[in-house]
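Appendix B: complex inputs.
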Amino acid sequence: MRLELRGITKRFGSLVANDHIDLTIEPGEIHALLGENGAGKTTLMNVLYGLTQPDEGQIVVDGEPVRFRTPGHAIRAGIGMVHQHFMLIPVFTVAENVMLGVERTKRLGFLDRRRARRDVQELSKRYGLAVDPDAVVEDLPVGVQQRVEIIKALLRQANVLILDEPTAVLTPQEIEDLFGVMRSLRDSGRSIVFITHKLKEVKAVADRITVIRRGRVVTTTTPAATEAELASLMVGRPVMLRVDKGPSRPGAPVLEVRDLRVLDDRGQTVVDGVTFGVRAGEIVAVAGVQGNGQTELTEAIMGLRPVAGGSIRVNGREMVGRSPREVLMAGVGYVPEDRQHDGLIVDFSVADNLILDMYHRPPFASGPSLRPRVVQESARQRSEEFDVRLTSIDDPASALSGGNQQKLVLARELSRPIQLFVAAQPTRGVDVGSTEFLHRRIVQQRDSGVAVLIVSSELDEVISLADRIAVMYRGRITGIVPPDTPREQIGLLMAGAGATGDGAVPPGRRPAASEGSVAVGEAEPTRRPR
Amino acid sequence: MTSTVATEERGGQLPPQGARRPSFGRWGRAFLDAAREGNAVVVTILAIVVALFIGALLIAFSTPSVDPKWAHFFSDPGGAIVAAAKAVGNSYYALFQGCIVSPATISAYLAGKQPLYQIFYPLSETVVGATPLILASLAVTVSFRAGLFNIGAQGQIITGGLLGAWIGFGLNLPPGIHQIVCLVGGFVGGAIWGWLAGWLKARTGAHEVITTIMLNYIAINLLTYLLNTPWFQAPGSTYSISANVDQSAVLPHLFGPNLRLNAGIFVALLCALGCAWLLNRSTIGFEFKAVGLNPDAARTAGMSVAKVAILVMIISGGLAGLAGTAQILGTDFNVTPGLASELGFTAITVSLLGRLGVGGTVMAAFLFGALNAGGTLMQASTGTPVDVVTVIQAIIVMFIAAPPLVRTIFRLRGSREGGEGQMLSAGWGG
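Resulting structure:
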């Protein structure tokens, strides 16, 4: 099926979200739609999926102009969409979710579950979408849930599959698996529209790349383009992809973690005897596949999760058993992994979010009263200093893009005196321009003598930011290595090799182990439920 | 799905908001925005209009004098409609006379047949009715804003009222001090009941909706029991009724003995000011709102969610306790089994009608006070059952709770986000 968008224009008031966009999706290609947050990618796909109506332009399927008034029309025309947020019913099984809306019944109106199971099994075999049809969806890792969404679309005869930021929630392994699925779908003649702002992924999997900036198509190119070229096309100016930093000058130890043991909500040991330290003026990055205890480690340091054993010292003071406020006030800045959930109150104004952990102290409070004028003044300064793009500091934080929300969190945490800065996934879901900025600020902190602990599941980020890399696997640190260590070796540590803790890689292990070792749906730890 | 679109578009570097609206001049645009965005005030006013209309239909079809005319609707449609319109007009006119002012009393006063206070009697009744409503609704507003669904205002009104009344007739204190001690006692009485629910929530995670409802039952039975013990029962009485509070504890009437308007309204308005400060200008209120909107982020930012839960319930319960006490010291003077009647539940309605804002809550309480005062006269003078008022109140709140319905009726454009409704439904999970 050949899909064409001709001169699609969509306006919201005077804002032009899509400005005469022309796009052709050939059958059997993976077509990446690359653009920063807010460039108009999602609007375009909503037009294509019948969720919004274009003001101008037309959609042409195999030479026939069509109009999609509802998603139902689009689905019937063979278009499937996997949203960023999955539309699954958590307590249903995979098969039940897949048949939802297209239920087949036996005589007397009984649901034909067996047939649904068989459909799922068939599709998962054909395209390498490993899924157990009888598993309950809420027990599945995010990556597998995504596969269920894809199966759902395929079962509805989708010839063009739209994937909206599909990798934002996935671990590196899951991303690789997804790419495998995408390739096998393409080889079977279906086409895929891959919406993303991640350059590496585009280069890895796309056949053609259309770059969108401010609602317009900038160009359509091939993966032969370099990352730097793509980035500057996307942002509209040259972008630094490498972090520009000098050598570190480490000082006295600030954070000392010794034999730390932490349990998760179900009582399983998820941090298992971890020992490491961060000195003033250095960046230590914790690498590892998501779900190997990094989240719990940072939560334990911040006093947000009880500690089962061991010690955490900040500047020599024991922090175990202290409340989050005591830890924050001891000079620790914290950027939580999930900024929308833990880092911000999205319904609060930007100004209020900027004082979320300082509202009770001067200068923002005098006695029991807040001082709105000081709060406003400081908010104006901070948002300017940290380049938070906003209309008004009285707007809710939900009105900001992901990158600007993250800048907001950073602005708050870096605007009080800190000795230790803990940041979990500081650039997840953040566009290239903002990532550059955030990295620069983090390095600035290091250079001013702050001890920095970064947790990131993106190896690129870890390697470019860290002065030392601690790799975590199943709750243990499998090695602490310098950033010039070969990727392969770090990959092995991430897969559990060298669990002795000295960082040596035992001979005889092949790098392939890092990719294939995590079996679908079993060894892979389930993400923390929300 | 429009929200997805809007989110992405607002997220970009393109100029969001403001820029996308045609310019009309400042006031014109403000009005248009208000109307088209489904603004809270507009929706509220329209909800009241719709409710009055439905109330009118009820009156038109239920008034005995109009009934036979409907039977001849097809032979004499004019007659039926005129009669119905007359019935509606009379009822609503009586409602107005009962809560604002009656022209008849003005002319009677001018003719020298009636004293001046008669003119202000309806207004006084409105304010008297609003006084405990303001306090109880503030209690609900404060707790809802902190994400706690205090359904227990009813019980807290009772325990507060009991303690306040007991101090009122049990202790001998000079006037001035006596009222203050009574009011403090009333606050404490309600606060204890609220604290219980807050403490249970903080310590065991028991949901406050369940515990406050159960505490309501306990309070009601406690009231019935205590009214038959020597501590409370009026000396020499065999009824479930307490002694009157001492004259020194009574909240003074503001305009002489003929108008029931008393100093309780000052207590209520003072508390409203306090709540406005608390929610908008204080560090504690900042914590309340933060915990209410996102307890995880609040905890991450170093706030103690458990401490907030307890403190909120203490303040909320205390305000409800004040409502009971103000009613006893200002108008009732003694405790009866009907102490709280429906006050604690009406308060939830009022608070929602006020959209969980302090100013809105006070205004809504006055509206309900007026409807109640007017409804009494309406029933007395036109025979229209006072239940019509209850129906009107219920419909107003239903429309407030369902802004999309009002918007559909009046073809307003959808507001940008889910608004209150979303916040409310989100809270039930915790």
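Chain A has 18 helices and 22 strands.
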